[in-house]
Specification:
The chain has about 280 residues and is of the alpha/beta class. It has eight helices and ten strands. The protein has one domain: Vaccinia Virus protein VP39 (Rossmann fold, 3-Layer(aba) Sandwich), CATH 3.40.50.150. The N terminus is likely disordered. Bound molecules: S-adenosylmethionine.
């Protein structure tokens, strides 16, 4: 466990349009994620890489008045937005606190180490080159018998039908960008293994559905989320010569047309694994 800073490059960035995309993603996934995380009343929860704080706030509401959520986040912009969201949700800092920190440092006080009932992370492990170091710290942050819940992408499982022209190539370029910056675009399939290697006892492995079809209210937002992911990472994919502006723009236009089809279907899911810290 030599690494003390993740040093990971966050390919999405924190500009305004990315924050809007992240909010949209939260709207699509939070209720489904909460149903699988199974927060219990009064739980003390650590949320690593808490972003705009929407999921931390949802977990704090589920934990109720006696619960507490601590979100650790590297970006000061995200923390400022998360604090504003907490205020808007009418929650006190004693219920949800957002603290600056790196996933490999966690900036926990001595009395907080080993005190949490649940350590949670979503869409962070795909952005760090040493996900095992993060999971090891999450295991040490919970009490013996406490839960560790990891949620992340396996980008290889995406299916769209009828498939938009050029999507396959651009999606491959997007995954290659993760490789290029030292991160794993398929970390979702490794979650159980990471729990085991970090000293937790794996207890559950499942998917949270992230697909939709035309006619469903979440179909449009699901396709827009994909378009914005590609648009946001586009400049970097082009500068790394993984795709060209022509290929990328054409793929985004194809996705825009796909979103209007009456017969379109998207299959995608977020991997979720739960482990328990041995007593
Ligand atoms: C895709 S967002 C997910 C946010 C949130 N977990 C959610 O599901 O809505 C990933 C977040 O992790 C943060 N992040 C990336 N690398 C980090 C690190 N090494 N330590 C702490 N936060 C990090 C980013 O700033 C970003 O806010």
């Amino acid at each position: 466990m030599a690494e003390t800073r993740s040093g990971g490059e966050y390919v999405h960035g924190t500009h305004r349009s990315e924050q809007e995309r992240l909010t949209l993603m939260n709207e699509i996934l939070n209720a489904r994620t909460l149903a699988e995380v199974r927060v219990r009343p009064g739980e003390r929860i650590l949320d690593v890489g808490s972003g705009l704080g929407q999921m931390s706030i949802a977990m704090a509401k589920a934990a109720g008045a006696g619960g507490r959520v601590l979100g650790i986040e590297r970006s000061r912009e995200q923390i400022a937005r998360a604090q504003a969201a907490r205020h808007a949700a009418g929650l006190e800092e004693t219920q949800v606190e957002f603290r600056a920190g790196d996933a490999l440092r966690l900036s926990l006080r001595d009395d907080e180490c080993g005190s949490f009932d649940l350590a949670f992370t979503r869409f962070l492990l795909e952005h760090v080159p040493h996900p095992l170091g993060v999971v090891e710290r999450m295991v040490r942050a919970v009490r013996p018998g406490g839960r560790i819940v990891l949620c992340d992408d396996d980008h290889e499982i995406l299916r769209l039908h009828p498939e938009p022209a050029g999507l396959r190539e651009v999606w491959r370029a997007y995954m290659a960008l993760y490789d290029r910056v030292g991160n794993d675009p398929m970390v979702g399939r490794r979650l159980v293994q990471l729990l085991h290697e970090a000293g937790a006892k794996p207890a559950r492995n499942t998917w949270v559905w992230f697909g939709a079809c035309s006619g469903e209210p979440m179909f449009g937002p699901t396709v827009v989320n994909m378009m914005e992911i590609l648009r946001g990472a586009g400049e970097r994919m082009i500068s790394e010569r993984l795709t060209t502006a022509t290929e990328l723009n054409s793929c985004i236009e194809e996705l825009r047309a796909f979103a209007t089809r009456p017969d379109a279907a998207v299959w995608f899911a977020m991997a979720l694994a739960e482990g328990i810290r041995p007593g």
